[in-house]
Design goal:
heterodimer; A: 630 residues; alpha/beta; four-stranded antiparallel beta sheet; B: alpha/beta; ABC transporter transmembrane region fold; 19 helices; elongated
Chain lengths: 630, 609
């Protein structure tokens, strides 16, 4: 019931269209029920005609038959042709109506399903854009995509086809049953006496089938995993010349899959003949019973023939009950998985400050602590406090896992501090809306992500309407312009990403820098974003940046000390705490962690000089020895 | 990548060569296929005859008696014997149908499973033979769907879909025969409807196909869009582009909705229209057939009329079935082409005719004017010459893309030189078998790949015949005895339960167990904790001590421990010598070493503070 509610939620306002579709189906059913009637009347007319040419009217207590009779002229030798033409036309009209109602029912359901599914897809998409980053880091991408595509498709198929099919089946079942009952009650009951057996049999079968199906799928999955492993490790396979071994392993699993496949099919090969048998038995019962009724003159020959058709309508579709039930089960699972996404909480974007407030003010961290899980003792940041003046250039340095990136995540409000507060211009960060905040803080990510689109679109990602000249300017600063124009086949219109040109790590980082620059942010963050760029290029980029970003507050997270030496202030973090802070020269004189790193440069050179010197000395000795030997 | 052109797969190719090839797979299962076809046809025959029984029942068991009653109601005594006779016949035929259905489902099921098995075997075997150059440009996921979904699709065509097609053909044939036997005029009326139905069916099918192709295309775009915007969520959020991404997506999903709607709509139209076509036939039967039953010498009986009416309303079904088969065959065409395109691929690296095995390999390796390229104007290795004496350890150093990996791939004969020769122990390896070479190689790849199973299974991968003692010795040899305790641990899919360093160590043990004459290694670049790194280093030292080794080295300690260093740049060896020699030279190697040493020291402080 709960699931039905969810399905209705998905179908949204379009669910009322289904009511209309249902109505159409009922009309189609009614019309269909008339079809055998026409045959019945034709036959009765003919029978009557051949028995006694004087019989003009046939007694019938069937209101529908009477209604049709009223359209027919009196029967005599001359107009039998006309009567038959009229009957043929009535039959055609009925068929046409039936087709029209069926088509409109299906179109209605298709129309509303497609509308509803489109809305569902859109909702899923924007919901996934709106959930916090933490949600994405917890949920594997593949799983989300499976739900948004595969599961949505399951629901779509179910509500396009199965809903209508089952409604149609139910309508026809009851319609035909009513028709049979109207002809003769006991005959009707005899004609459906095996129905419960057939239905129960079908449901039982599909239960059993789904158990074997699950096992079969499990073996199939194992086979897929085996192939996946083999193909991704094909170099190992070949390196060890294990092709034959792998083939043997695959064959075994393939056999196993075949075994379960055959089991499944054997089950089917028992079920379908069995249900065929039941249906034929039911039909035989119905025919023999009808024969007795006709011969005892309780029903007419025409009614007998019509009855045969109705019995067929009722019984054959029953075999599909099991299938519908099992598909309903699958759809339920899909619906639940879709809702698990839609019911997850989205980010709160609101803030109480105007959206045009500039951010280039002071940034202050006041005793900020942070951990991912509320219950966890694992602090990522502990009591971090610092204050930054507008336009300052700040470096964050420290070992991996020291909390450098978390400082930025908090500033962007991807996460909230567990205690303490962050202030910009003296106002709590939460008073700025996330939208405003993020559009004013430009982050260059360490692992830049490019979209499968043109290089221009990627650079202009934050501001799609930017003029190409601005894009080029940004690309020039990021030292990627030459590569784009000289190396890429279609210059700025080159498609990059999965379907296009693959960029190296350094190139991607440069595109990412250009992209962020174009946003014209008040605060810019380089999150270890030059790691794949060679030192000379990095230097050039920094020189350019210095010119254009004089008043922009800059954060640099770096591993290379060369890239942060000229920062206004360097904050050294370790295990979530600030251990040192100051200018380059202050930290050098401080003789701490920073000094240690700085000294490496010198010590390494010494080390190498010593090594070479030692070797050269030895060489000299050897040379001298050689000479002396000579 | 040429293999990703799914979308523009030829739409107008004839399906017959494909079907012919596909049916080739059933040759081995002839008896199933034949009995399958026979029994489907028998089923159709019985089902075509059943209405006749019904007709005869009316004509012989009902109408005469009813007429008797009307003529003489007083003396009327119902006689049920005829009725029972015909119902008995009906029932027996029904049971026959059930029996036939059993046989053909049984056979069709076997054909499906057996052929699927064979197709998958063929594909997998081929994939094991194909060379590295094939894998360099084929995505694993793409290949996977050939083995899993495409093979299933194609085999379902020649089992379940074939049932429908054969049944449909049989049904049309037998119905035609039966109808002609009873009344050729009415038969002609009913049959004249069939071509019209096929024509209609073809027209609508085409429309359905057009829109369903379109919607499939949009569907994959939707999947791609989800993938991209979920993977790139950080960018979207930090640049506040969530809403734009969503509205872009809405444009796409609207396109999808449109084509999906039309494809479903035509599908919905399809059956009712065809059924209506059948009804036109039925109406004609009422008119003409009705006329024939009247008069002093009626041409047909009432039962015949009822039977023909039945045929007319049923004939649409075989038409639907046959055209469904055709549509499915077309749908499978591209799946089939993809499968056969793999099966037909030529294996590039394979044993030459008359090649013989290497006896034992001592480990001398020589490159003589070796060149290698994919495209002629972009040489990867250019006229390379060097000679390594047995037992020497070589570090290959240089920029990524310079040709280091190609060198070890050439030695392992994953690729073959385009020009020049490679000699192992003085013999051109092209005249020898591939397996006898690879069995003497021990290769450790940059990203160590393990297979699901226990640690023991994975180590034993290097040598199936190894005893427990051999495994222990291998572990001891590289100094990781503690893994003895962990031999039964499951490594998980692709080794996911283990860390990178652990995987690396196990892949060492795997290589050592093979007791190779030539050890080849692409050193992992990813960071590994100090303890494991030390273990890996001592492992490497042990392995390279006694045999010819080629290592693409990233760690300074590894480079220094090798006897000889080859610096590779743009497909050429630019420096060649020992660490000391190259340091004194103060060339490329010197600056590389200096830079790396500095970075390493920086990292050491940052990581181990």
């Amino acid at each position: 019931m709960n699931n039905l509610k969810k399905l209705f939620k998905i179908l949204d306002k379009w669910k009322y269209y289904y009511l209309l579709a249902g109505l159409m189906l009922i009309l189609a059913m009614v019309v269909r029920m008339l079809e055998p009637k026409v045959l019945q009347i034709s036959i009765d007319k003919i029978v009557a005609f051949s028995q006694d040419k004087s019989v003009k009217e046939i007694e019938s207590n069937d209101p529908i038959a009477q209604e049709i009779y009223s359209y027919l002229p009196e029967l005599n030798n001359d107009n039998i042709g006309t009567v038959l033409i009229i009957l043929g036309v009535i039959f055609l009209c009925i068929s046409l109506l039936r087709a029209a109602f069926n088509v409109s029912a299906s179109s209605l359901s298709t129309y509303s399903t497609e509308k509803a599914i489109k809305k569902l897809r859109d909702r899923l998409f924007s919901h996934l854009q709106a959930v916090p980053i933490a949600y994405h880091s917890k949920t594997p991408t593949g799983e989300l995509i499976q739900r948004c595509t595969g599961d949505v498709e399951t629901v779509r198929k179910f509500s396009t086809h199965q809903v209508i099919e089952s409604l149609r089946m139910i309508a026809i079942f009851f319609g035909a049953l009513a028709m049979m009952l109207s002809i003769n009650v006991s005959y009707a009951l005899l004609s459906i006496c095996l129905v419960p057996v057939i239905v129960i049999g079908c449901i039982y079968f599909f239960k059993k089938e789904s158990a074997i199906w699950t096992k079969h799928e499990a073996e199939q999955d194992k086979l897929s995993i085996m192939v996946q492993e083999n193909l991704s490790g094909i170099r190992v396979v070949k390196a060890f010349a294990k092709e034959d071994y792998e083939i043997e392993k695959f064959t075994k699993q393939n056999e196993l899959k075949k075994k379960w496949g055959l089991k499944l099919l054997t089950l089917h090969s028992y079920f379908w003949p069995f249900s065929d048998f039941l249906v034929y038995t039911q039909m035989s019962i119905s025919i023999i019973a009808g024969g007795y009724f006709v011969l005892n003159n309780q029903i007419s020959v025409g009614e007998y023939v019509a009855f045969y058709s109705y019995a067929t309508f009722v019984i054959w579709p029953l075999r599909r009950v099991g299938q519908i039930v099992s598909e309903m089960g699958m759809t339920t699972v899909a619906i639940n998985r879709i809702f698990s996404i839609l019911e997850s909480e989205t980010e709160d974007y609101s803030g109480n400050l105007e959206n045009n407030v500039s951010l280039d003010g002071e940034i202050e961290f006041k005793n900020v602590s942070f951990k991912y899980e509320v219950e966890s003792d694992n602090h990522i940041l502990k009591n971090v406090s610092f204050k930054i003046k507008p336009g300052e250039k700040i470096a964050l340095l420290g070992p991996t896992g020291a909390g450098k990136s978390s400082v930025i995540s908090l500033l962007m409000r991807f996460f909230e501090p567990s205690s303490g507060e962050i202030l910009i211009n003296g106002k709590n960060l939460n008073s700025y809306s996330k939208e405003h905040l993020r559009s004013k803080i430009g982050v260059v990510l360490q692992k830049p992500f490019l979209f499968s689109s043109t290089i221009k679109d990627n650079i202009a990602y934050g501001k799609p309407d930017t003029h190409i000249n601005e894009v080029i300017d940004a690309a020039k600063v990021a030292r990627i312009h030459e590569i784009i124009t000289e190396v890429f086949p279609d210059s700025y219109e080159t498609i990059v990403g999965e379907k296009g040109v693959t960029l190296s790590g350094g190139q991607k980082q440069r595109v990412s820098i250009a992209r962020t620059l174009l946003m014209n942010p008040d605060i810019i963050v380089f999150d270890d974003s030059t790691s794949a760029i060679d030192t000379e290029t990095e230097y050039e980029i920094q020189k350019e940046l210095r010119n254009i970003m004089k008043n922009v507050t800059t954060f640099i997270i770096a591993h290379r000390i060369t890239s942060i030496q000229d920062c206004d202030r360097i904050i050294v973090l370790d295990k979530g705490e600030i251990i040192e802070s100051g200018t380059h020269s202050e930290l050098i004189s401080n003789n701490g962690f920073y000094k240690k790193i700085f000294d490496i440069q010198v010590t390494v050179e010494d080390e190498i000089q010593k090594e070479i010197g030692f070797i050269s000395d030895q060489k000299e000795i050897v040379k001298n020895a050689d000479i002396s030997l000579n | 990548m040429t293999q990703f052109k799914d979308k523009d797969f030829r739409q107008n190719t004839s399906i017959f060569p494909f079907l012919k090839r596909l049916f080739g797979y059933t040759k081995k299962y002839k008896k199933f296929l034949i009995s399958f076809i026979i029994f489907v046809l028998l089923t159709a025959a019985v089902e075509a005859v059943l209405p006749i029984v019904w007709m005869k029942l009316i004509d012989n068991a009902i109408v005469p008696l009813v007429n008797n009653y009307f003529e003489n109601p007083v003396n009327y005594v119902p006689d049920y014997s005829e009725l029972w006779k015909y119902v008995g016949m009906y029932f027996i035929l029904g049971c026959l149908v059930a029996a036939f259905v059993f046989v053909f489902i049984f056979c069709a099921g076997r054909i499906q499973e057996f052929v699927m098995f064979d197709v998958r075997q063929d594909l997998f075997k081929k994939l094991q033979k194909l060379s590295f150059s094939f894998y360099d440009k084929s995505a694993v996921g793409w290949l996977m769907s050939r083995i899993t979904s495409d093979s299933q699709k194609v085999t379902e065509l020649i089992s379940w879909s074939l049932i429908e097609a054969v049944w449909g053909l049989g049904m049309i044939f037998f119905c035609t025969v039966v109808m002609f036997v009873f009344n050729w005029k009415l038969a002609l009326i009913v049959i004249s409807i069939i071509p019209v139905l096929f024509l209609l069916s073809g027209k609508i099918r085409k429309l359905i196909l057009k829109y369903s192709r379109e919607s499939r295309k949009f569907n994959s775009e939707i999947t791609a869009s989800f993938n991209e915007n979920i993977s790139g969520i950080e960018v979207n959020k930090s640049m506040v582009q969530e809403n734009r991404a969503s509205s872009d997506f809405q444009t796409l999903s609207e396109k999808m909705r449109n084509s999906s709607f039309w494809s479903e709509c035509y599908t919905a139209l399809y059956t009712p229209i065809i059924i209506f076509g059948g009804s036109v036939g039925a109406a004609l039967v009422i008119y003409f057939g009705g006329k024939m039953t009247i008069g002093l010498n009626p041409e047909i009986t009432i039962g015949t009329l009822a039977a023909f009416f039945g045929y007319a309303t049923l004939i649409f079904e075989p038409v639907l079935d046959i055209s469904r088969f055709y549509a499915q065959a077309q749908g499978c065409l591209s799946a089939g082409e993809r499968i056969f395109s793999i099966v037909d691929l030529e294996v590039v690296v394979k044993d030459k005719k008359n090649s013989d095995d290497f006896d034992d390999i001592k480990g001398e390796v020589e490159f003589k004017n070796v060149s290698f390229y994919y495209e002629q104007n972009k040489p990867v290795i250019e006229n390379m010459n060097f000679k390594i004496s047995a037992g020497q350890s070589i570090a290959l150093v240089g920029e990524t893309g310079g040709g280091k990996s190609t060198i070890i791939n050439l030695i392992s004969r994953f690729y073959e030189p385009v020009a020049g020769q490679i000699f192992i122990d003085g013999q051109d390896y092209m005249n020898k078998t591939i397996n006898s070479l690879r069995r003497r190689l021990g290769i450790v790849l940059q990203t160590p790949h393990l297979f699901s199973g226990s640690v023991r299974d994975n180590i034993r991968y290097g040598n199936e015949n190894a005893t427990e003692e051999d495994i222990l010795n291998a572990l001891k040899f590289i100094g990781i005895e503690e893994y003895i305790e962990r031999l039964d641990e499951e490594v998980g899919e692709g080794g996911e339960n283990l860390s990178m360093g652990e995987k690396q160590l196990i892949s060492f043990a795997r290589a050592v167990l093979a007791n190779p004459s030539i050890f080849i290694m692409d050193e992992a670049t990813s960071s590994i904790d100090t303890l494991t790194e030390a273990k890996i280093q001592s492992g490497i030292n042990e392995i390279i001590k006694s045999r010819t080794s080629f290592i693409i080295a990233h760690r300074l300690s590894t480079i220094k421990s090798c006897d000889r260093i080859l610096v590779v740049k743009k497909g050429k060896i630019i420096e060649d010598g020992s660490h000391k020699e190259l340091m004194i030279k103060k060339g490329y190697y010197y600056s590389l070493y200096t830079r790396q040493l500095r970075e390493q020291r920086e990292k050491e402080i940052l990581e181990h503070n």
